């Protein structure tokens, strides 16, 4: 039962956030669209912000579960395409600034990607330089995505993936073994 409530609430929130920001969406709007009771909603979520976090975590988790590439360009192209395909939702989610905001979640996903890629070599932990490189690239990547969303996504996912590959620090390219992938991309 609670999983069905979560799914219906998530679908309602996703639909509502295609059109409006979290500040303009009420729990009553969510309940009405989802066809669930207030008590069912509060058994699953603390408030509408908790639902928003659940919604974008579930959306991004689902997307990440469908990624089957280790090539950084193809990964970034997929990410930028996904963001573009869900433009209104992510632009509205990005407008929220507070605890566990979208930028923080995006940073955590990015850092986890770099960490998993680095640890797949069998090492038990990242070195300080590896952790610093991953943190730097993750923070910069989040800001690039945020600015792209703020600009209205005027550049294509292909252009943004190419830029992103060029922006990855050389040390991180070397550590990840992606220098040849990113290095072959033209500046044009």
Notable traits:
188 residues; mainly alpha; 11 helices; 0% strand; disordered C terminus
Describe the SSE topology.
Elements: H1 2-17, H2 27-34, H3 38-44, H4 48-65, H5 72-85, H6 87-95, H7 102-119, H8 128-150, H9 157-167, H10 170-176, H11 179-183
Helix pairs in contact: 1-2, 1-3, 1-4, 1-6, 5-9, 7-8
Would you write up a description of this structure?
With 188 residues, the protein is an all-alpha fold. The chain contains 11 helices and no strands. 72% of the residues lie in helices and 0% in strands. The radius of gyration is 18 Å and the shape is globular.
Provide a brief overview of the structure.
This protein is an all-alpha fold and 188 residues long. It has helices at residues 2-17, 27-34, 38-44, 48-65, 72-85, 87-95, 102-119, 128-150, 157-167, 170-176, 179-183.
Q: Report the radius of gyration as a whole number of Å.
A: 18 Å
* Main β-sheet description: none
Mean pLDDT: 83
What order do the SSEs take from the amino end to the carboxyl end, as H and E? HHHHHHHHHHH
Question: Strand tally, please?
Answer: 0
Low-confidence stretches: 179-188
Q: What percentage of residues falls in helices of 4 or more residues?
A: over 70%
Structural class: mainly alpha
Q: So what's the overall shape?
A: globular
Cα separation of the termini: 53 Å
Number of discrete helical segments:
11
Strand content: under 5%
């Amino acid at each position: 039962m609670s999983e069905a409530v979560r799914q219906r609430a998530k679908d309602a929130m996703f639909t509502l956030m295609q059109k409006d920001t979290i500040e303009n969406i009420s729990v009553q709007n969510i309940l009405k669209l989802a066809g669930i009771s207030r008590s069912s909603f509060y058994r699953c979520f603390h408030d509408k912000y908790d639902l928003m976090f659940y919604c974008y975590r579930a959306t991004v988790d689902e997307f990440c579960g469908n990624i089957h590439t280790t090539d950084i360009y193809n990964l970034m192209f997929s990410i930028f395409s996904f963001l573009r395909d869900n433009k209104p939702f992510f632009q509205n989610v990005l407008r929220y600034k507070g605890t566990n905001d979208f930028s923080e979640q995006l940073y955590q996903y990015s850092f986890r990607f770099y960490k998993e890629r680095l640890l797949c070599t069998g090492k038990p932990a990242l070195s300080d330089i590896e952790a610093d490189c991953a943190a730097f690239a993750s923070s910069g990547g989040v800001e690039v995505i945020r600015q792209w969303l703020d600009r209205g996504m005027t550049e294509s996912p292909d252009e943004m993936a190419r830029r992103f590959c060029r922006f990855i620090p050389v040390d991180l390219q070397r550590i990840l073994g992606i220098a040849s992938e990113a290095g072959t991309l033209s500046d044009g």
